[in-house]
Recover the amino acids of this structure.
């Protein structure tokens, strides 16, 4: 955590804020709320970590659609997996640790807005669409498992600070048009008066049809802040509301992607997010050496999902020709046109009649219906408060900056899910039938089919923390800190209450003290070095505790099953590096890091694509080298970041790998396991990340910029042992995504002092690429027709055709806009 270095000769009358606002260009962190709140300045050379920052002006100049897009384009060691293929639903990863909106993704980054934790109680997910880009005044990305940032800070913490009327006065309106029927309008207004009041408000509306088939998005956000301050006190209340509808149709199978780059596997995949938050922050300078701060917050999130999926249980069934009893049931119900005989995969590419007939007979729709509609509804409330103090003191000639505080957070979440059978249509949509997976259906091995979930969870966490930054000299600073967290999770199952087999009931407790120590040393002007060690932890969430039984895998976010207990994740991180400047023209840095996760919580794929369970994995490791150079020479602004990342498993584990050619299946395409060995690379983590940009400012009227992001290949999910090879009819595709490089061009022209126009071209050279991959059984043949029992039986079992599915990158797009400032 970044804490300030005290100056050796501070005037006695100087305030603490003035002291903390020492020279430098990096926001320090006052740990108010559940996280450190950036409020003041601190010299960069006193930090024992390679912190990255950005201002509102840099975010606006980048042309990024939202905060996640800015992180991907501009910050080192950050990359994005677009698993949902919606611009507002990316998996944002830093050093291989992820903040994702998708349940089931291992979460390892903490995200905060004005001191309020944005990781949601149910799954620790982060919904990027709920963060208003225009309201962000600055951001700080802190690396490592720093304990002062609270739970879930395994790989880093992202602190977002919003604008206020003093820093962002005036009024502006901005409109955009772009490819794929993209249109948006944003407005902001800020101001202050002599009585100390300040205010800021912004709102936006965004709509697009999306570059893929049937993938529209509709985003509505509004944000407001009202505050009052004087020389000693500052209080502000923030209100934010979002109401969004996002369609992200997910991964596409490789052959279908080659046939039509814009195609979808099945549809729809709709997420409706509604969120309201209230956050009140305050600080008061009690004396020249004592600063008090705190916050209180409330947040409510309501999420609906509606997903049209393949029913994987139908892939090894006879789904084409209705039998005599089925034909009789269809005729009695008034249906006509069903085949009397001879229906098969070659002449019936999209079967439906056996599905409908089995619903009428109340027989086997779970095997004969090849489609399924999955619906979920998640309601979350979380609230909490915290307080802290920061004090200066001289002890035995050493200047101490001491920060200490406590926080309390409470969350309530309910999750309800239903699954309705249906059949697949040629346009990849699902037509539902009047039959639900609610326990009334028995599958072919006599097991009830019940995908319903009605789970409520209550989570409470209280914590205390402290830090002491000791400036022995102006060149040497030592920071020691720690945080103690105690969490309880109480799950209650409304369908199978009381505990025991099949019940999600459970009471879980987790506690841990996490320490940190960091040393910063500046041996010469323009050069400094740092060394740090820190520990962080993450407690299992309600959904992970409700989906941890390998005998009862879940379809996320749709179903959960009774669970063995999970342990909390503990991450231990080392950091070391040097940094400096070249004649005030450029800044450079070089660093190394190693982070080891103990009892990491991973989502393990089960025998069908989409099913799986959470489990503790012995140990994983993230280590690497980071190099950076940025500067400004005349009208030219430039920068380059390179990361070598090695994210590996460090324990031996056996997991299901039925889609992997190296599994121990009795025959190709049948169910089997794979063995993960120490040293195997973790899927979706590239080894190399390179970013470079150059911007030219042509006087006061125009600017133009060029940026490149290059990412190396990464293994697919399902290829955790790195052993998959394409071959034979059962295994299609390489089991990895190829490396890629995309270039973006942007420019701005100032027509008048108030009116400006801007343009951006994404993926300038229209490259086709993929940001993620996954192995899984496919339900289609090479012509795009549904295919059950695609291969001959082996000892009565039907092998699957398994393929590599890709998260395709967006093609070239052009966006233009106009901004008018009042």
């Amino acid at each position: 955590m970044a804490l300030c270095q005290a100056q050796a000769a501070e005037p006695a009358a100087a305030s603490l804020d003035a002291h903390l606002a020492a020279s430098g260009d990096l926001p320090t962190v006052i740990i108010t709320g559940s996280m450190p709140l950036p409020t003041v300045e601190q010299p960069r050379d006193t930090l024992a970590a390679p912190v990255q920052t950005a201002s509102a002006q840099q975010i606006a100049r980048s042309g990024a659609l939202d905060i996640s897009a800015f992180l991907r384009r501009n910050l080192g060691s950050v990359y994005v997996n677009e698993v949902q293929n919606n611009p507002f639903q990316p998996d944002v990863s830093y050093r291989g640790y992820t903040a994702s909106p998708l349940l089931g993704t291992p979460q390892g980054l903490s995200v905060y807005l004005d001191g309020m934790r944005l990781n949601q109680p149910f799954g620790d997910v982060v919904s990027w669409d709920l963060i208003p880009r225009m309201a962000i005044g600055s951001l700080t990305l802190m690396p490592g498992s720093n304990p002062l940032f609270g739970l879930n800070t395994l790989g880093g913490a992202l602190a977002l600070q919003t604008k206020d009327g003093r820093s962002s006065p005036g009024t502006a309106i901005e409109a955009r048009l772009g490819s794929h029927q993209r249109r948006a309008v944003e407005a902001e207004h800020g101001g202050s008066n002599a009585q100390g009041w300040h205010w800021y408000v912004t709102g936006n509306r965004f709509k697009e049809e999306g570059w893929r088939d049937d993938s529209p998005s509709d985003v509505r956000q509004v944000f407001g802040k009202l505050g009052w301050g004087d020389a000693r006190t500052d209080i502000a209340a923030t209100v934010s509301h979002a109401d969004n509808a996002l369609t992200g149709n997910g991964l596409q199978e490789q052959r279908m992607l080659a046939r039509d780059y814009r195609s979808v596997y099945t549809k729809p995949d709709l997420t409706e997010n509604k969120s309201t938050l209230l956050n009140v922050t305050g600080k008061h300078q009690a004396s020249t050496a004592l600063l008090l701060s705190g916050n209180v917050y409330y947040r409510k999130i309501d999420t609906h999902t509606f997903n049209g999926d393949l029913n994987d249980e139908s892939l090894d069934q006879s789904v084409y020709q209705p039998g005599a009893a089925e034909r009789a049931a269809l005729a009695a119900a008034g249906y006509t046109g069903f085949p009397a005989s001879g229906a098969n995969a070659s002449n019936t590419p999209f079967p439906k009649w056996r599905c409908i007939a089995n619903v009428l007979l109340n027989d086997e729709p779970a095997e004969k219906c090849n489609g399924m509609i999955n619906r979920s509804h998640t309601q979350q409330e979380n609230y909490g408060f915290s307080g802290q103090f920061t004090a200066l003191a001289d002890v035995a000639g050493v200047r101490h900056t001491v920060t200490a505080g406590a926080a309390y957070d409470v969350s309530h979440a309910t999750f309800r899910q239903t699954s309705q059978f249906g059949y697949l249509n040629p346009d990849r949509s699902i037509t539902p039938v009047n039959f639900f997976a609610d326990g009334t259906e028995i599958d072919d091995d006599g097991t009830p089919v019940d995908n319903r979930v009605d789970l409520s969870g209550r989570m409470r966490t209280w914590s205390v923390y402290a830090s002491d930054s000791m400036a022995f000299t102006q060149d040497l600073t030592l920071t020691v800190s720690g945080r103690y967290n105690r969490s309880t999770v109480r799950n209650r199952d409304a369908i199978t209450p009381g505990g025991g087999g099949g019940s999600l009931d459970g009471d879980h407790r987790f506690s841990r003290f996490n320490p940190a120590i960091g040393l910063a040393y500046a041996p010469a002007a323009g050069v400094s070095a740092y060394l740090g060690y820190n520990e962080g932890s993450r407690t299992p969430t309600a959904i992970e505790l409700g989906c941890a039984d390998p005998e009862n895998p879940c379809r996320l976010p749709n179903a959960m099953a009774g669970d063995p207990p999970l342990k909390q994740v503990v991450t231990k991180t080392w950091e070391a590096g040097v940094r400096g400047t070249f004649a005030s023209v450029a800044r450079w840095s070089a660093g190394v890091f190693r982070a080891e996760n103990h009892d990491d919580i991973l989502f393990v794929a089960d025998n069908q694509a989409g099913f799986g369970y959470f489990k503790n994995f012995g140990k994983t490791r993230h280590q690497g080298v980071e190099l950076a150079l940025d500067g400004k020479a005349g009208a030219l602004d430039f920068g380059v970041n390179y990361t070598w990342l090695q994210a590996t498993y460090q324990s031996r584990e056996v997991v299901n790998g039925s889609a992997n050619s190296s599994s121990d299946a009795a025959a190709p395409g049948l169910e089997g396991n794979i063995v993960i060995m120490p040293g195997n690379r973790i899927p979706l983590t590239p080894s190399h990340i390179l970013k470079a940009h150059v911007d030219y400012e042509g006087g006061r009227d125009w600017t133009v910029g060029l940026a490149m992001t290059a990412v190396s290949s990464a293994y697919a999910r399902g290829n955790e042992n790195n052993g998959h090879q394409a071959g034979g009819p059962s295994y299609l595709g390489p089991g990895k995504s190829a490396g890629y490089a995309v270039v973006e061009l942007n420019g701005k022209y100032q027509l008048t002092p108030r009116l400006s126009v801007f343009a951006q071209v994404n993926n300038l050279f229209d490259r086709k690429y993929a940001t993620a991959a996954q192995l899984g059984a496919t339900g289609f043949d090479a012509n795009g027709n549904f295919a059950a029992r695609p291969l001959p039986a082996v000892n009565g079992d039907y092998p699957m055709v398994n393929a590599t599915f890709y998260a395709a990158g967006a093609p070239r797009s052009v966006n233009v806009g106009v901004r008018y400032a009042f």
